[in-house]
Amino acid sequence: MKNIIITAIILFFVIICPKVTANPYLKAEITGFPFVTENNVTANINLTYTQNGQSKLYVMSPDNFIVNNDNPDIKIPITNLYILNDGQQYQISNNWQNFYTDISGTAGSIQKNVNLKLENIGELPAGNYTALLKILNKSETSPDYECDFLFTFIIDGKQSILSDSSNPVIQVSENEIFNKQAYIRNQSDVRLDLTSNTGWKLWLNTLNFDDENCEYYLQVKNISGKVSTYEPNSIRLYSNQRYLIASGEPTFEGVQTGNKIPTNITLEYSFKNTSSDNFIKEGIKQNPFIYILERE
What we know:
By secondary structure, this protein is mostly beta strands. The chain folds into two domains: 22-155, Immunoglobulin-like (Sandwich), CATH 2.60.40; 159-295, Sandwich (Immunoglobulin-like), CATH 2.60.40. Helix content is 5%, strand content 52%. The protein has one helix at residues 2-16, and strands at 26-36, 41-51, 55-60, 65-68, 75-77, 81-85, 88-91, 97-102, 108-118, 127-139, 145-155, 159-162, 169-172, 183-185, 190-196, 200-205, 214-224, 227-230, 235-237, 242-248, 263-273, 283-286, 290-295. Strands 3, 4, 5, 8, 10 and 11 form a six-stranded antiparallel β-sheet that branches. Strands 12, 14, 15, 17, 19 and 21 form a six-stranded antiparallel β-sheet that branches. Strands 1-2-9-6-7 form a five-stranded antiparallel β-sheet, with no helix packed on it. A hairpin with a 4-residue loop joins β1 (26-36) and β2 (41-51).
C-alpha cells in the first residue's frame, strides 16, 4: 500500500508539473566566436522566433555593466554595447529597445541574424567578460515571449617589452685598464617600457653571459607607472641565471580608450675587476641580456 501511494505521488508530479525547457518560441544563439580587436568586440547572433502576423523584437540588459569575472571591479558600461540590424545600430541599456519589426506577415518559425558590437573599450585587462541580455518578441496575435542570452568573450593575456638600448654598453678606456680597482658603469642606462594587461613579473636571463673575470652588477635606477615591487639593492650577476627584477599590476587602468599607464624601469649595469693580479681589457663590453615578462 505504501509503495502504491509513493508511485501515485510521482505520477502526479510527472503529469501536473511542467518540464523546465528552453523557450521554443524565441531563442538567441551565438554563431562562431566573438571577434576581439584593440578597441572593439563583435559577435554574430542568430535569433529564432515564432510569429503569426507582425512581430517586434526588443533587447535590454537588467545589469548596468559588462563584468570581468576574474576581477569584478573591472566593469564596462552596458551602454557601450550595441545591436546591429540591417545597417542600423541600437544602443543597449536597462530599458527595452526595439531593434527590429517584422512586417512580412509570415507565419511560423523565423530566423534573423544580427550583430552585437562593443565599442570604445580601449585595451582591456585580461579575463572572461559576461553580460546578461534579454530578448523580447511582441507579436500581434500571440503572447509575448522572452529569452535570456549571455554575451561572453575572453580577453587573452598580452605583454610586451620595448627598449632602444636593451644591451648595456660599457666602455673601458686605456687609462682604466691599469686601474686594478676600476669600477665602470654603462655609458647610458637601459630603459625598458612595459605593457601588460595582467599582473606581471620581469626577469633577467643571463644565458651565455660572459663575466670575463669581472664582477658584473645590476641596479634598478628608476621606476614609473604600475610597478608594485622591485629589487632595491645592487645585484651581482652570474652566467646562466634568472633574476627577478620587478613585478607589477596591469598597465591598463579602467576600460575607456586611452587607458594605458606608461610603465618603465631604468637599469644601470656596471662591473669591476675581480682580482688585483689582473688588468681589465680595453674596449667595449656588451652582453646580450635577455628580458622576460611573465604573467603574475
